[in-house]
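Protein details
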Amino acid sequence: MTQPPPARSGLPALSAADASELRETLLEVCSSPAWAAAVAASRPWRDRGDLLTANAKAMAELSADDLRDAMAGHARIGTPKPGDAVSEREQAGVRGADPSVLDELRSANAAYEAKFGHVFLICATGRTADGMLAALRERYPNDAATEAETVRGELRKINEIRIDQLLDAPQ
């Protein structure tokens, strides 16, 4: 009896995925269809660095509408999406936070959203609720153009973490 071929994992599996499967996988990393298309078009990737470079290049080229698409895939800071393991893992720093800090975070989020028209986006991995609140307050005075570029950088960092997790996940 012959054994099935070993399953490919990480970068080889991602590189070999058919277009539809790759698109769905990339949209789990970043909800911008334009980003997913740009990253997919950059295949083949020789190594992790190539894929991370494709992420940075694609992120740098997103339009304002594409950035909104990318932000739409993210939960409001301080309120991870219930049942969404990625959202809960990325915002683990809010678990157990003082309720007054969470109340302040909700208020600051509301003011930010009223000013900028979108959720406050930050790479929350490894940050505490206090740290995210401080960052929100620090960024609130930004003008729209400055904040859009800050968001672009935060999305790039989030995507890098998600790509690393995707490549390192057991298949």
Remarks:
- The chain has two domains: 9-73+155-171, 76-140.
- Residues 9-73+155-171 form a domain with the UraD-like fold (CATH 1.10.3330.10).
- DSSP finds nine helices and no strands in the chain.
